């Protein structure tokens, strides 16, 4: 038998059947890849139901809901403040109380933060670092994303230091703090008394500017924060604002607490 008769696919007459051309392994693999890609596309289409699977609409709706509730809470606070003014105006009429009792009540209202407070003030502004920040000083690691954002403990450290420095009243963003106020951060946002804020965060305090600035400098938590300011570029600015009038607290004074689930 000649070599040509033994070669597959030559079309020569021989004792064995003539074989068709063999598929090369590369072509088989290519076909399999395209088939798998088609299956993934079909599955993704069914899962997304014709929507963009890169965008999670539920997250967008949640974000819109949070902002909507925040604006609603702001409106309710303003309405509550108006009603409180009306109540106070009615209470100032002859209610049978003595002058001493009225003075005592006024003092309690100032301590509670529901009355306006006026005096010399300083402001502290904190802000996230640039997203492309790098270590500015040798010997420090390159920043993780967590290093470049303001955290809850940073805001709490400033508020605590200002109280320690004798602040008579403190305002965070546009809201007056009282004894039950909780400064909380979720992700990269501040949630304060039912309203949501994004950086930069501004904290204003009325009191003795020199004592409050010294309290800021003495705070160990703020000293740690200043390392991140100098190395990674977190925002830090302290200004003297002159005479400022802080608004009285206008929100609810009811305590909110967890309830057991039955």
Structural commentary:
With 262 residues, this protein is an alpha+beta fold. Helices cover 43% and strands 17% of the residues. It has helices at residues 3-6, 25-48, 57-91, 99-112, 152-164, 209-218, 220-232; strands spanning 117-127, 169-172, 175-176, 184-186, 189-192, 195-197, 201-206, 235-246. Strands 3-2-7-1-8 form a 5-stranded antiparallel sheet, with helices on one face. A 3-stranded antiparallel sheet has the order 4-5-6. The N and C termini lie far apart (91 Å). Residues 1-23 and 43-57 have low confidence and may be disordered.
Number of helices: 7
C-alpha Rg (nearest Å): 34 Å
Strand content: 15-25%
Between the first and last Cα atoms, what is the distance in angstroms?
Answer: 91 Å
Please indicate the count of domains.
3
Weakly predicted, low-confidence segments: 1-23, 43-57
What is the molecular shape?
globular
CATH class of the largest domain: Alpha Beta
CATH homolog superfamily of the largest domain = Protein of unknown function DUF881
| Largest beta-sheet characterization | 5 strands, antiparallel
């Amino acid at each position: 038998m000649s070599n040509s008769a033994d070669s597959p696919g030559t079309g020569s007459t021989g004792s064995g059947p003539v074989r068709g051309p063999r598929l090369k392994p590369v072509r088989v693999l290519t076909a399999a890849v395209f088939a798998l890609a088609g299956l993934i596309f079909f599955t993704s289409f069914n899962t997304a139901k014709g929507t963009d699977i890169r965008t999670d609409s539920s997250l967008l709706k949640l974000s819109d809901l949070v902002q909507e509730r925040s604006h609603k809470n702001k409106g309710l606070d303003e309405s509550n403040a108006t009603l409180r003014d009306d109540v106070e105006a009615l209470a100032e009429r002859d209610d049978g109380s003595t002058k001493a009792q009225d003075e005592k009540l006024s003092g309690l209202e100032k301590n509670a933060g529901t009355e306006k407070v006026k005096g010399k003030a300083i402001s502290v502004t904190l802000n996230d670092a640039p997203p492309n920040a790098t270590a500015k000083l040798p010997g420090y690691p390159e920043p993780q994303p967590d290093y470049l954002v303001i955290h809850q403990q940073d805001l709490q450290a400033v508020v605590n230091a200002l109280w320690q420095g004798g602040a008579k009243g403190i305002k965070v963003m546009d809201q007056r703090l009282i004894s039950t106020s909780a400064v909380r951060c979720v992700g990269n946002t501040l949630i304060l008394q039912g309203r949501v804020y994004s950086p930069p965060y501004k904290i204003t305090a009325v009191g003795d500017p020199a004592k409050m600035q010294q309290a800021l400098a003495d705070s160990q938590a703020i000293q740690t924060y200043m390392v991140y300011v100098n190395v990674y570029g977190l925002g830090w600015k302290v200004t003297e604002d002159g005479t400022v009038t802080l608004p009285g607290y206008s929100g609810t004074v009811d305590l909110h607490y967890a309830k057991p689930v039955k």
